[in-house]
Specification:
The structure is a single chain. This protein has helices spanning 2-8, 31-37; strands spanning 15-20, 40-42, 45-47, 55-58, 63-66, 69-74, 83-91, 96-106, 114-122, 125-132, 147-151, 162-166, 177-183, 188-192, 195-200, 210-216, 232-245. It is mainly β. The chain has a single domain (34-245), classed as Sandwich (Jelly Rolls), CATH 2.60.120. Strands 2, 3, 4, 7, 9, 10, 11, 12 and 16 form a 9-stranded mixed beta sheet that branches. Strand 13 and strand 14 (188-192) form a beta hairpin. The longest helix has 7 residues, at 2-8.
């Protein structure tokens, strides 16, 4: 009976989302229109500080497309007590359940920010690629240097996240590199320029989610450090997503 029932289930075709931001200049569209045409939105909300010395504010004006790149800017010079101006873009689809998510980008050499490419339902259903610009090659008491790969704890106990930091195979600030997150029911695999650099098979997200790209700072030496004293800009050349929806 089970094979018959399975045969009756409809096949759900994978969805694809590919955006080459070098096509923006000839599109005749505004940034908001171009992103909307590709089923992407700019975030606009505040994140109040919890353990961080600074909160941050995702601003639509900190998202731009310049010289063929989607730019996510963290503005420099935030004074104590202020919210760090930050940037975030996400998919309209919020029912993504498994897939392969590729981002080709150049990270900022300016210390004090976190660039993130990640699946997100909530803080307990999240798989992350994160670039900490203060900790490319050297860490501190709290942070290991390298590319941060994390599955957030699915029981919301973030002292038990699944995390590893891996050395960068190449300098992420001097040229374009492809970051890939491959999410399945059993594991999240992470790649740098097509090379497998990590496999995390605990705390694997299991709920329909969005995919987000952001850049922000909380000024906490235990993570982002900073905030930056000058503008820190993440440059994304291309995104290429293939995924299932629930």
């Amino acid at each position: 009976m089970l094979p018959i029932l399975l045969a009756l289930l409809p096949l759900v075709a994978a969805k694809t989302l590919t955006v080459d931001f070098s096509t923006f200049a000839s599109s005749g569209l505004t940034v908001a229109e171009f992103l909307d045409q590709h089923q992407l939105y700019r975030s606009a909300y505040n994140v109040t500080p919890a353990e961080d010395p600074y909160g941050h504010q995702f601003r639509t004006e900190n998202v731009d497309i310049q010289n063929g790149y989607l730019t996510l800017k963290v503005s420099g010079g935030t004074q104590p007590g202020g919210l760090v101006p930050s940037a975030e873009v996400g998919t309209y689809d919020s029912n993504i359940l498994y897939g392969t998510f590729k981002t080709t980008a150049i990270s900022s050499p300016v210390p004090g920010v976190c660039h993130g490419f990640f699946t997100y339902k909530d803080d307990c259903q999240e798989a992350d690629i994160e670039i900490l610009t203060s900790f490319y090659n050297t860490g501190n008491t709290y942070v290991q240097p390298g590319l941060e790969l994390t599955n957030q704890n699915t029981a919301c106990d973030h002292t038990h996240n699944t995390n590893t930091a891996v050395p960068y195979p190449a300098d992420p600030t001097t040229g374009e590199h492809e970051y890939t997150l491959e999410w399945s029911a059993s594991a999240v695999k992470y790649y740098f320029d097509g090379q497998l650099v990590g496999t995390l098979n605990t705390n694997v997200p299991s709920q329909p989610s969005s995919f987000l790209w952001n850049s922000w700072s909380g000024g906490n030496v235990k993570w982002t450090a900073g905030p930056p004293t000058q503008d820190a800009i993440l440059r994304i050349k291309k995104i290429d997503l293939t995924y299932q929806t629930a």
